[in-house]
Amino acid sequence: MKLYTSPGACSTADHIVLEWIGKPYQVQVVTREMRATPEFRALNPAGAVPVLEDDGWVLTQNMAILHYLTDLNPEAKLDGDGTPRGRAEVNRWLAFVNADLHPAFKPLFGSTAYLDDAAAIDKSKDNARATLRMLFGRANEQLGKHEWIAGKTRSIADPYLFITSRWTKGVGVDLGGYEHLARFCARMEADPAVQKVLAVTA
Q1: Which residues have C-beta within 8 Å of that of residue 130, sequence separation ≥ 6?
Q2: Structural contact between residues 94 and 157, judged by C-beta atoms closer than 8 angstroms
Q3: Minimal CA–CA distance to 96: which of 137, 152, 38?
Q4: Helix/strand/coil for 59
Q5: Contacting residues for 165 by C-beta, under 8 A, at least 6 apart
Q6: What is the side-by-side strand order in the sheet with 2-5?
Q7: Residues 6+ apart with CB under 8 A from 15
Q8: Is the Cβ–Cβ distance between 66 and 160 less than 8 Å?
Q9: Residue 182 burial (CB < 10 Å; 0-12/13-18/19+)?
Q10: With bands split at pLDDT 50, 70 and 90, how would you rate the model's confidence at 89?
């Protein structure tokens, strides 16, 4: 099994999950330039990470890879407590990060540059920051009730939330006052598996 990842990208969540699972895997760190090559585009025409290769089969899309890893390794207990409701809670918060939080960063990563209007671009970025503060506020509230985002045990949703929270530091999103989220991030940063992954892809 081989994971293609890029420094700081959402694929870091998959990398952390692979470490938590504890089985052998390979990792290849690819730059933006490498992702534009024909060789990489043959793996993923979108030129994006994560990409997972498993015995000649190629899988893309973060949520699909995270679920595939948990389905292959149920003993790791990263997909809820074994009940339908437990799995649904993981899916709820994984979808929250994937469909709400992650896309909300796009204006801050340059997706509105096509507007070619500095005031409009700045307005889109201000709106993104306000939206992200609101969304992270929801995560903070949830983490005030539970140690992990989906409940009592860690899951595949936690590394994804952790990585997106790290993105806020470079784009001016204020997370001040979110003490539960801060405590969660500190716990993740103290995890030996997370430290090992960040040493490779931070």
Answers
A1: none
A2: yes
A3: 137
A4: strand
A5: 136, 175, 181, 185
A6: 26-29, 2-5, 51-54, 57-60
A7: 3, 5, 27, 197, 200, 201
A8: yes
A9: middle
A10: very high
Q: Is the pLDDT of residue 111 over 80?
A: no
pLDDT in tens, 132-185: 999 999 999 999 999 999 999 999 999 999 999 999 999 999 999 999 999 999
Beta bridge partners of 66: none
pTM of the model: 0.95
8 A C-beta contact, residue 64 and residue 72: no
Q: In terms of C-beta distances under 8 Å and separation of at least 24 residues, what long-range contacts does 87-92 make, across chains too?
A: 89/150, 89/151, 90/150, 90/151, 90/155, 90/156, 90/157, 92/150
Whole-number percent of the chain with pLDDT over 90: 92
The helix/strand/coil state of 26 is strand
Q: What are phi and psi of 148, to 5 degrees?
A: -120, 160
Count of residues for the chain?
202
Q: CA angle, corner 24, sides to 164 and 150, nearest 5?
A: 35
8 Å CB contact between 175 and 165? yes
